[in-house]
From TrEMBL, chain B:
Residue ranges of every copy of the Rieske domain listed in the record: 7-101
Organism: Actinoplanes teichomyceticus
SUPFAM superfamilies (alphabetical): ISP domain
UniProt protein name: Nitrite reductase (NADH) small subunit
Molecular function terms, GO-annotated: 2 iron, 2 sulfur cluster binding; metal ion binding; monooxygenase activity; oxidoreductase activity, acting on paired donors, with incorporation or reduction of molecular oxygen
Pfam families: Rieske (PF00355)
Assigned keywords, A-Z: 2Fe-2S, Iron, Iron-sulfur, Metal-binding
Origin superkingdom: Bacteria
Keyword Cell membrane found: no
Length: 819, 103
């Protein structure tokens, strides 16, 4: 049933929340009230408007047509005076009531004025030459007045004061900035950085800055003539702008009996404390004790609120925002995040200071995690620092890399790249194509990846794609709500998805779509991931819908660029026999296989087999499938080991074969490639495998996990050193099962292991700290028992036309055949 | 939509639910899909990107995803979702348990 949604406040948070709700197809009739007589504009841009670099038209976000087109009733210039939560009504100043089912309060803040003598005119609020800097009307009046003025004083040396001072320079010949604290932007910057900024503002912009300046009086009777400071100093001026801070607009809410402390108290769903149907977002909301005065947190809040209120994800939770700012403050680059100053001796502090150029950089590091950073005068590293700060990424040993681009890997800046520079080397996508996708409306990284296929090959270019999307978006990419989902078409992260699948007993892919997707929409791109998950969860009870499988898994061969398939027989541990070789050779000859090739995984690949010939080839080979196609356990590479090698200290070949025999065909969220090597010389490259085993002297084996040597290169982390092959086999199964149950779809171990942390994995898999080891062992044992060689499925096709060619009879791009 | 002489391609059970099969009709190669909602769609069999066999792709009730590079096309309109050329769509329906291609 369509519900009545009322929104009080038509500012940045209110309108954004409504946009998010519309984007989720929320079933509401929406009525909005805004105190200001306009549609919705970008308040941030008022600084630019004042500075004359933006026109009024340019700052509107949603004009009146947007409200009309979306069926939103906008009451602009209408102030709400009272909320009656009992009766579910809001009342405007004239006493007109509007009923609601759901109410969102987004009343923002007002500009706070310190108690200064003469600042208010008893008759007309502010003294006529005194202005606040908050609304479009404020800015318009300021500009009109300043045209006739000569000298301006700005009270407040925070971000807003600096912007006001800079903007006023456009209208008057002299500006003085007064700040009551010891240094500029004292909320964000430490003393050194604040002083550096002051020096830059004075020398580069020509604005006078006075710190420790307590303004006590505005002078002048009919018009402003100056301001007086506590120490008696008088500064002549004819216009004053107050930017001394903001306070949330909560009076009306508090007097309506709703809980207000510093702001309106909300829970993690942005619901007003103790209320079921009233929410608050934006600067007026107090969440976990914090108020936010920047827009980035509002965006996060708006999404959670929209997810929750539309039922798209009722459990969505806002957990607070890590505040970082990257701005040009009055034309000077400033970035700050986290701590301003170290808090204990254990905090590592790195400072770089170049006063002549006005450059200052300070980092605060705790336990190898960035907990604070301040940059003035050079923001080039800001983006990567913000990332490290937000995500708690591990930091490079060479700390200087954090502050400077030193040799080696210079982060390519999107700005400096030519339009035709190829970004994704797998899919041939240029920077221009990515920017084009952004211009035509894709605002999220994953949206752009979908539209262009950039980053969808080996994935190494993803960080660069992200930077370009952010740059093309003017600084930040919108966060993609789907980023945490297990598959794109079902709005749930993996643990929730698994819980829901269990709760409802969903045993097939289509059952999952029908039950868990709003509207029951099926999604082709999610099928494979769901099939893999369901098979892992239900084993033999899984209802196998063949269309949920990728073609590789439908015909048990790897599709090639010309639509043919490759056939790779099993060759455990890379060991074969003359008889097997002979058989493979005969089959290859009989079917005129265009190419016979050794794979990187120590097997023989027969390439270029038409689909309809697959069953016959399998029958003639009569060998088990080598699983060269599925997201599953692939191979165990081995070295010669103790059998023949002069150096071998462990029988790597035998152990590799034993592991492959046991875990063959095991499905997972990604491929699993393993290796066993007979000594640390590592001829089988075990250090760079999903799981690699290394024999070391004394009859012991080291187990490494999370290695990779593909598009990503990573040395695995040492999981354990054990005394016997049997222990290797047990821990291998336990680790693989833990990975199967907890990794995201297509998340290889090189991403999974660092995400969970090797110490944590060791606790679970080796030390059994969570008490789940037995369950993991049992689960993997069940999967092992369920193994069936898919190549046996040849006499009787599983579906009609399973092996019928899908290739047209026209000529396709030919794969070159090498002699 | 392209016009074709009405042709019976065979029993609908030739195509498993949610999958596609290729047919040669009037010298054209056509991929016919049987959606999970029971309806049929017919599009050109060859991916315009690099010749992928579209009948081997995965579908839902809206799109087909080519198995080679995973570009997607709308099954009803033939429009690409990823800036590729469109594919042709053909009228197709079930007629007494048989697949009937053409008007
Ligand atoms: C000049 C300036 C520059 C800024 N620059 C930046 C920046 O660079 N980066 C950044 O992140 N942030 C910046 N900010 C802060 C940012 O604009 C705010 O964080 C953001 O606008 C807050 O959004 P909001 O919706 O909570 O409040 P607002 O945008 O203030 O919206 C609240 C709306 O509610 C209306 N309202 C209030 N009470 C009632 C009522 N009872 N009935 C009806 N309507 C009511 C108000 O009239 C107002 O329109 C800047 C702010 C200003 C003023
Ligand atoms: S790594 Fe191999 S499979 Fe991947 S794009 Fe390169 S050649 Fe192709
Ligand atoms: S890893 Fe050691 S045991 Fe294995 S082949 Fe190389 S040198 Fe020999
Ligand atoms: S051939 Fe179909 S997507 Fe490339």
């Amino acid at each position: 049933m369509t519900q009545k949604l009322v929104v009080i406040g038509n500012g940045m948070a209110g309108a954004r929340t409504v946009e998010e709700i519309l984007a989720r197809d929320g079933d509401f009739t929406v009525t909005m009230f805004g105190d200001e007589p306009y549609g919705n504009y970008n308040r941030i841009m008022l600084s630019n408007l004042l500075a004359g670099v933006e026109t009024e038209d340019g700052i509107f976000l949603n004009d009146l047509a947007w409200y009309r087109d979306n069926g939103i009733t906008l009451n602009a210039g209408s102030k709400i005076e009272r909320i009656d939560a009992q009766a579910r009504m809001v009342y405007d100043a004239e006493g007109n009531g509007t009923p609601y089912d759901k109410l969102i309060i987004a009343t923002g803040s007002y500009s706070w004025t310190p108690p200064i003598k003469g600042i208010h005119n008893p008759k007309r609020g502010y003294h006529q030459g005194v202005f606040a800097f908050r609304t479009l009307d404020d800015t318009r009046r300021m500009i009109t007045y300043a045209r006739r003025a000569e000298r301006a004083v700005v009270i407040g040396g925070g971000l807003l004061g600096l912007e006001a001072a800079r903007g006023l320079q456009n209208h008057v010949s002299h500006v003085t900035l007064l700040h009551a604290m010891g240094h500029l932007m004292n909320m964000q910057l430490d003393e050194r950085a604040g002083e550096m900024l002051k020096a830059s503002v004075e020398s580069k912009l020509g604005i006078d800055v006075i710190v420790d300046a307590m303004t006590t009086e505005i002078l002048g009777k009919d018009r402003v003539t100056g301001v007086k400071l506590a120490d008696g100093t008088v500064i002549d001026c004819d216009v004053v702008v107050v930017a001394a801070g903001i306070r949330p607009n909560t009076e009306m809410v508090a007097s309506s009996g709703l809980p207000v402390e510093r702001g309106i108290v909300v829970d993690d769903q942005m619901r007003v404390q103790g209320q079921d149907d009233i929410y608050a977002v934006g600067e007026c909301a107090q969440h976990r004790g914090d108020l936010y005065g920047l827009v980035a947190p509002l965006w996060d809040q708006a999404k959670v609120l929209a997810d929750h209120i539309t039922g798209r994800n009722p459990a969505a939770a806002y957990e607070g925002s890590k505040i970082s700012t990257k701005l040009k403050v009055a034309g000077i680059d400033v970035a700050s995040m986290g701590l301003r100053e170290p808090e204990s001796d254990a905090d590592e502090v790195i400072v770089y200071n170049e006063p002549r150029k006005g450059i200052y950089k300070q980092l605060i590091i705790r336990d190898n995690v960035l907990v604070g950073a301040t940059l003035v005068g050079d923001n080039r590293k800001a983006a990567s620092l913000i990332q490290a700060f937000d995500r708690g990424l591990p930091l490079p040993e060479e700390r200087a890399e954090l502050i400077f681009d030193i040799g080696g890997v210079v982060e390519e800046s999107p700005e400096s790249m030519p339009d035709d520079a190829q970004v994704c080397n797998c899919n041939g996508v240029s920077k221009g194509a990515i920017c084009g996708a952004v211009r035509s409306g894709c605002k999220t990284v994953s949206g752009v990846m979908d539209a262009t296929r950039a980053g969808k090959g080996c994935g190494t270019c993803k960080p660069l794609v992200q930077r370009i999307v952010e740059w093309a978006n003017g600084g930040e990419a919108e966060e993609d709500p789907a980023a945490s989902w297990y598959v794109p078409g079902v709005p749930m992260p993996k643990p929730e998805l698994m819980a829901a699948i269990r709760r409802y007993g969903l045993k097939s892919v289509s059952a999952v779509f029908d039950k868990l997707v709003p509207g029951g929409a099926h999604d082709a791109k999610s099928k494979m991931g769901l099939a893999s998950l369901l098979r892992m969860m239900w084993g033999a009870d899984y209802v196998d819908e063949r269309d949920a499988r990728f073609i590789n898994d439908r015909v048990h061969g790897n599709i090639q660029k010309d639509g043919t398939f490759s056939v790779v027989p099993q060759m455990k541990g890379g060991v074969t026999t003359p008889a097997q070789l002979k058989r493979i050779a005969e089959v290859a000859e009989k079917y005129q296989v265009p190419m016979v090739k050794l794979t990187g995984g120590q097997r023989i690949d027969l390439l270029g087999i038409p689909k309809e010939k697959l069953p016959a080839i399998w029958a003639d080979l009569d060998m088990p499938s080598g699983y060269a196609y599925a997201k599953s356990f692939r191979t165990v590479k081995t070295c010669v080991g103790s059998d023949f090698c002069r150096f071998g200290v462990g029988d790597s070949t035998a152990l590799g074969i034993a592991i492959e025999e046991r875990y063959q065909g095991l499905e997972g969220p990604g491929k699993m490639k393993l290796a066993v090597t007979g000594c640390p010389r590592n001829c089988a490259e075990a250090y760079v495998k999903d799981l690699g085993v290394v024999a070391i002297d004394g009859g012991k084996w080291e187990i490494y996990v999370g290695g990779a040597a593909g598009a990503h290169i990573r040395k695995g982390d040492l999981l354990a050193t054990v005394d016997s092959a049997a222990e290797v086999i047990t821990l291998t199964g336990r680790f693989l099962q833990y990975y199967r149950e907890n990794a995201n779809w297509l998340e290889r171990t090189y991403a999974f292991v660092p995400r969970i942390g090797i110490d944590r994995i060791r606790q679970i898999v080796v030390d059994d700290a969570d008490g789940i080891a037995a369950a993991l062992d049992a689960a993997v044992e069940e999967a092992v028992q369920a193994y069936q060689d898919p190549w046996k499925e040849r006499a009787e096709p599983a579906t009609p036309g399973q092996f019928r060619t899908s290739l047209p009879l026209t000529v396709l791009p030919q794969v070159p055949v090498r002699a | 939509m392209k016009t074709l002489t009405p042709t019976v391609l065979g029993p609908i059970t030739d195509i498993p639910l949610g999958e596609g099969r290729t047919y040669a009709v009037d010298g054209e190669m056509i991929a016919v899909f049987r959606l999970r909602d029971g309806s049929l769609r017919a599009v050109s069999a060859v991916c315009p990107h690099k010749g992928g066999p579209l009948a081997d792709g995965q579908i839902d009730n809206r799109i087909v995803v080519c198995p080679l590079h995973l570009y997607a096309w709308d099954l009803a309109t033939g429009c690409s979702q990823s800036g590729q050329p469109p594919i042709s769509v053909y009228p197709v329906r079930e007629d007494a348990g048989r697949i009937l291609l053409g008007e």
